Amino acid sequence: MMNAETQEVRLPDIGEGVVEGELVRWLVKIGDKVLADQAVAEVMTDKATVEVPSPIAGTVKELKVKEGDTVPIETVMLLVQKELGQSTKPQSPETKSVQTKPIEPQEKKIVATAAPVASEINPPVADTKVLATPSTRRLAREMGIDINQVNGTGLVGRVTREDVLKNNLIKEVISHPKSAMESKIPPSNTTSFVYKNQNFGSSLVEEKVPLRGVRKKIAENMQNSKHTIPHFTLVEEAQVTELVKLRAQAKEQAEKRGVKITYLPFVIKALLATVREFPMFNASIDDSAAEIIYKKYYHVGFAADTPNGLMVPVIKFADQKTLLELSHEIQELAQKARAGKLALDEMRGATITVTNIGSVAGLYATPIINHPEVAILGMYKIQDRPVWKENSFVRAQVMNFSMTCDHRLIDGAVAANFMKAFVNRLENPSVLMLDMI
Amino acid sequence: MEFDVCVIGAGPGGYVAAIRAAQLGKKTVIVERESLGGVCLNVGCIPSKALIVASHFYSRMQHDAAVMGFEIKAPVKINAEKLQSWKQSVVEKMTGGIAQLLKANGVTVIAGEAQFTTPTQLEVKTTVSHSTPAKTEIIKAKNYIVATGSRPIEIPGFKIDETQVLSSSGALALKKLPKKIIVVGGGYIGLEIGTLMAKLGVEIEVVEAGNQLLSGVADPDCVQVVTKNLNKLGVKIHYNAKAVEYKKTSNGLEVSIQINNQVQKISGEKILLTVGRRPNSDGLNLKNIGVQLDEKGFVKVNPQRKTNLQGIYAIGDIACQPMLAHKASYEGILAAEVIAGKNRVYDPKTVPAVIFVDPEIASAGWTEAECKLHGHTDLKVGKFPFAANGRAVSLMETNGLVKIIADAKTNIVLGVHIAGPEASQLISEAVLGIEMGARLEDLAGSIHPHPTLSETLMEAAEATLGHAIHIYQKPRSHA
Lengths: 437, 479
Description:
The complex is a heterodimer.
Chain A: E1 6-10, E2 20-26, E3 33-34, E4 39-44, E5 49-53, E6 58-63, E7 70-72, E8 76-82, H1 103-112, H2 134-142, H3 161-171, H4 178-183, H5 213-228, E9 231-239, H6 241-256, H7 264-277, E10 283-286, E11 291-294, E12 300-302, E13 304-306, E14 309-311, E15 314-315, H8 323-338, E16 352-356, E17 375-389, E18 392-406, H9 412-427, H10 429-434
Parallel strand pairs in A: 12-16, 16-17
Antiparallel strand pairs in A: 1-8, 2-4, 2-7, 3-6, 4-5, 6-8, 9-18, 10-11, 12-15, 13-14, 17-18
Helix pairs in contact in A: 7-8, 7-9
Chain B: E1 2-8, H1 14-23, E2 28-32, H2 38-43, H3 45-62, H4 64-67, H5 80-104, E3 108-118, E4 121-126, E5 136-146, E6 150-152, E7 165-166, H6 168-171, E8 180-184, H7 188-199, E9 203-207, H8 220-232, E10 236-238, E11 241-249, E12 252-259, E13 262-268, E14 270-273, E15 277-279, H9 286-289, E16 312-314, H10 325-339, E17 353-355, E18 360-365, H11 368-373, E19 379-385, H12 390-395, E20 401-407, E21 413-420, H13 423-435, H14 440-444, H15 455-465
Parallel strand pairs in B: 1-2, 1-5, 2-3, 5-16, 7-14, 8-9, 8-14, 9-10
Antiparallel strand pairs in B: 3-4, 4-5, 6-15, 11-12, 12-13, 17-18, 18-21, 19-20, 20-21
Helix pairs in contact in B: 1-10, 3-5, 3-7
């Protein structure tokens, strides 16, 4: 037990395999009075930014780490002196979960699923054949990695801690449509270059910022994807006048049910209906095994721009969901992404990705595929344009789409046929309806 | 009363679960109808160990002391009543510790008999004591951990009354040593108590249904060591024998046993019935609220110890084999952490087992037969005798061996079986080794302190590799 007077506040185990975080800023200073559960610091991990709460009410006595420091979990961050005469429940510091810890959704999930005996445990229990120490098995579990699938590089096939950590890196590859990167980075985050020639002699002013956290992860993933996949991009326009009408009607109806419907769910529906015809778009290449893996399930990732950088939440089994359900889920996931509260599980497992940067700017872009997926669909702004129809120009709503493919698996002609079928569905919602769940 | 977690049963599974749940910030209550600590602390593991230590001490005074040069002029006498009160003081120290820990962690403790009224509500008839009258408490908890343990099985014709037919609990509470005990069931509980009684001078006759003792729970080589020693202690063993009935006669009890369709009569003063234990899953109204049980009466659980009902967990003896305290504690921590939202599963590579017979038996991992069942057909097996260990010789406890089984291709250790002095203490090294995926070379290459019993593990690993130092092994090859 602690000293009765002061309590150490540690960086809690954030879960999800996070081992350290960077102290972004202190929310309190020495001498401040804090309440139990009050956030005292903001820590950025490679997953999200989290707030560290004080486990007790009291006065901040000492700050043990500096802003910008990298803090391993369980490090003492500050000392809080207990309020005298105040009854504090005997709780250990670890009882306070970090606010943004994805424990909440997990806990809900556990309660919500009626636990069938011998139900699916995710990830599955380690087989007796797997050679890994108890701590490594736990690490893999907390990272959501099925240790049975990890290739052990240790002596006689032991799965080492490094094997698990490396596996996690591969799993979290996040796609990166370039334009999204440039869109809405908050001004505070942008490095302020001083360009004007202010007669500083010939010295060029530079500012060095460590590449860390989410940014570092994005950088690694993008590099890996571009390095591995020979990309090509096909661009097409679709006359979506009918779709615009349909969506306007649907929007009105959905709003009554508290859901905001955007174009994204319609696009996802058209995409998946087309992917069923062209299974190579919902596949991946296992380089080490020299195998193509055709996936018979459809998890759609969608790029979300967040203050921390690009995130790609995943709608699982998107093909089995109604427009309303899709809309609801998109709304929820996007909100979580912006708040940095996405659980790792919600960002993994996509089989194909959509990037939607149309609302900002850009005729079209050349996005980067979310490796190991093999295709990424880009959707862009809807614009009024004159269209030559039956001997006259008429006003039509036109939307650009791009399809970026992994040329190792998908040839140009296939992509063109795919695009044609896809655009046909969007231009004629009645065709789209034929495949609707 | 409303809680986040309600634990039912305060044995080594339940109280551990309650403490961990409280550590994780859950508002926790624990309900116990008898005593904190459950069977383990009150009438099982701990009191039996106290008596076993005493019996061993006594036996050594009888036999080894003279060899070492002690001249004990008068015979050493046993005061069974004093022995009991010392044993009880050991028990109370331990249970008192649990009460303090629960309190310190802010766990509410309720003494009483619990019953589910719905899958989310519990009714507790509290135990009457001088300070509290009986009343009924209603508990509502978001999660329940059922840890109500097990009880001895009875067989037809033998009803446990704790005067003539004893369970382990009764046998461990005898204030007067009987002249002779007939032990029905040669499993580990019967043999632990039978051995300690034999060492205290009680005549023992064992009725075993199978063709060997400790069948299915210990390595055959280890069983052989113990069986030999039982013979030396004068314990009579009937194999393939079925206890049919017993009756009271003028000079004690007469038990009819059937061997190959022939009925024999054996007599003794008491009967100790240790034919196994069954889960207490018939209580608590579990069935009526819809908790699924398997055909043996265990509550069906998944690797997170969830039952089929949402928010109800089951751990320990009631959940599955092996019925061992340390497994229950592991599950208690597991269930509490799962409730707190952590991703945990039951995934140990081995649950060690210890049997406090003479010498002790301890094992971790698989027997040879189990290795083969798991697909390891090519095995290396090596043994090292305690007789070649200096420390064992100086302890005058040279009976027994360490046996190691490894995969012949990888040298990964698959099983370690020890019969010998302090086997129960030595086995933890093997547990760690197996959990870490150790190879024979890892055990052999770790320096073990001299002179200790633990050197036998290092030597057994060397022996399995074919080149132990302190026993002669023919060189395998000079390639």
